[in-house]
Amino acid sequence: MASCKLHGLDPEAYRADVLRVMPYWSRERYLDLAPRYWARTRARLVADELNLDLGPITVPPPLPAEEQRATS
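^ that's the sequence the OP posted. Answer follows.
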């Protein structure tokens, strides 16, 4: 939770969002869910899906390698 505060995230909202998307997220891309990258990842999600209590989440494709390096 300290990492959330370091990256300007509300820890409770972050935890709720990550628990919501984790069942649909690829294991190879779990780093996208880390507090450091969460704002970028959340911006790419469908907001209406994320606001629902249940149901599938559309997982966006991975960022191109150039964008991953530029934002890491």
